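Thread: quick sanity check before group meeting

JM: Hey all, I'm pulling together slides for Thursday and realized we never actually wrote out the predicted structure for the chain we discussed last week. Dropping the sequence here so it's in one place. If anyone has concerns about the input, flag it before I start.
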Amino acid sequence: DSGSGLAARRGAPRLRAIVALGRLASPRMASTLKVAGALASLVLAASGSQVEHAHFAGHAHHARHRGGRGFVRGMEFRHRLRICNAYPSAGSLEVFRNRGERLTSDGAMPYKECGDFSSPLLAGDRLEFKVGSLPAGMFTISDLPNNDALLLLVIRRHDVESTAVSFESHVFANELDAQVAVIDAYQGKAKSHTLIEEKNVKIPKNETLRFNSVVSVPQGLYQIDLIPHGRGEENAVAETLVALKRQSFVVMRTGVEAEDGESFPEELVVFPQFPVEALNGAARFSFSVLLYALVAGLSSYATALC
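JM (edit): ok, ran it. Output follows.
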């Protein structure tokens, strides 16, 4: 156990730790996080306001050729953005790019909701966040990973005394199994932990999910429980996770026990949500691919014999 994942034990689901989540600390502080073997880093620059600046720093490689039109072309990668609003507020979250394009053009994002944005990201893009009409934070993308990637940003409350914001961030790797980022966006005295339990199996197994970590899980149906400290599982808040191959998921504990202003209860959020029937569709697809490969292999063998 490297400190970022789950300790293996007998009778537990097959979970595999990937990488610890990065946390951008309070304003007026600077920190650097290397993600997935220097795949990307996030740098938080000091700021005198609640607006924070961060950079996705990757390693750009460019093919060069001498004179004329070369035959070598640089690869184009698909970078998607997932934003989760874990900032407890009656006001919804608005996201803008480069001070003009409104990414949340379909409507502001309410508290406890996440959204995927397909608009391609480019180095140099500036993402601005507003909660209601107030500026909340700003990210400048200085560079991007040299592979297809899903970039995750979670906006949350920084502490219980003020309305300042903090960010959680992660770059999901390209994995066959489903990936789950487990984020603790709660601020307050309540102590809880999360469990993941296999469903639709003869002998259900469970394992603790550590906050601020990322794990991979095999395709299947799971239940995520948020269990208050010192209380039994009968008091747990439960959500369903339909884990599909090559999909990335977010599990968040949200809420705030504010010393001044409105408080919000401790809750559990799982995103995205797929219907259980999607597991059958994925299984049929896998069988079709296997059958196609088998037929193709037999055809090649028959051709060779002729």
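AS: nice. The longest helix spans residues 277-305. The chain has one helix and 21 strands.
JM: adding both to the slides.
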